[in-house]
Specification:
Elements lengths: L4 H13 L14 E5 L2 E4 L4 E4 L12 H11 L11 H11 L8 E5 L2 H16 L4 E4 L8 H4 L15 E4 L11 H21 L6 E4 L15 H11 L3 E5 L14 H5 L5 E4 L10 E5 L1 H10 L10 H16 L2 H22 L3 E7 L2 E8 L2 E2 L1 H13 L2 E2 L1 E3 L5 E3 L11 H13 L4
Parallel strand pairs: 3-14, 5-6, 5-7, 7-8, 8-9
Antiparallel strand pairs: 1-2, 2-3, 4-10, 9-10, 11-12, 12-13, 15-16
Bound molecules: pyridoxal-5'-phosphate.
Pyridoxal-5'-phosphate binds next to helix 4.
Length: about 425
Amino acid sequence: MNTTPATAALIERRNRTIGPYSPLFYNEPLQFVSAKGVWFTEASGDRYLDGYNNVPHVGHCNDRVVRALAEQAATLNIHTRYLNNRVVDYSERLLATFRPELDRVLFGNSGSEANELAIRIARQLTGSTGMIVSDYSYHGTTITLAEMTTGLTTREPLGAHVRTLRIPDLDTDPRPAAEVLATTLAELDAAIASLQEAGFGLAACLFDPLFSTEGMPRVPAGLVAGIAGRVRRAGGMVIADEVQSGFGRTGSHMWGHDYAGLDPDLVTMGKPMGNGHPMSAVVTSERVLNDFGSRNEYFNTFAGNPVSAAVGEAVLTEMAEEGLMDRASQLGAAALARFQEFAGSHEFVRAAKGTGLFLGLDFAIDGTPAPQIAKQVVESMKSKKVLISRIGRDESVLKVRPPLAFSGAELPILLDALESALQEVSV
Ligand SMILES: Cc1ncc(COP(=O)(O)O)c(C=O)c1O
């Protein structure tokens, strides 16, 4: 490590205030002072290409978003108990991106809050508390969600009312897809039966349609719809967590559930929604909202305020005017083709993964996941001034998930850096 004295001092002050437990990326952490579009500027003056962050969806410090935020903040910012056209305009615009039956929205301030609300709604509508989540996932910080967190460390044990499901990956499971599918659905049946026998019943199944935290497994056709069908037959609701998979990330679809062929009862979203401004939402149907809304006064001070609505609108406008989904689709296809070449030319690359601007490379040696290679590549990319990360239960899958504002000018920089990082890998 050749951390400068100034950086070391800042880390020390951070440890004494925020505490040392919130991890920092990289052996030598980066300290950014500004960002624009898909480029960061570090304290040293060096520029880094952002191949990782999905929150600055339409680009860091995007002019349209910043202007909308500043103008509305200078005009009026108030909660939803006063009539305001901006929040209604935004709601209409957001809901127009969903299939017709998903036509109601409740706003929040974070992905955690949206998931918490969706679970609360599901519990009330079903009269049950049982939950099913994947066995390597993350949905947020609240107590309810901590009790169903399987993808990072929490002191809370899994709730007695929670069952987990292993999401299969055809890139690592050698069995025929039909057999893999049948096994997983049988495991789901067993989980549902166990919740019912224990008296919890089934409130909901909560999952990310792209299984991002899980490491983007290549799931058998029919898996996601099969899960939803069984959950519904058991009286449960289906919650699609679109915090990572939504807002055009797949390139081909605005929503991950449409990409995955899933028909959810509740959709939760956050991160890219406000391009860094904290906002989130639960989208659902009129029937569900009527049931919940008529029995609960849902009031959320900061959620759905005019500034957030202005920001949310600016994000949607920017996406449309810059054609960001189409671009994600084209760039994603080109990048995936190159990732596949990498998989073909390096024995330690087990598979190329992903869709749109959410891509990965899975590393393994003789069938054993190789997180050490993923770490090497992430660090090596940093030395080439390109930021990416890694995911999956073994942390062996590269996570390449740049802002959707990524363009054809930047893609070769990322791909060339990755190619040379792979060449430098020492196994
Ligand atoms: C899939 C998913 N759901 C929910 C959350 C929680 O969102 P937030 O950190 O905004 O509360 C995250 C955050 O990483 C996430 O990745």
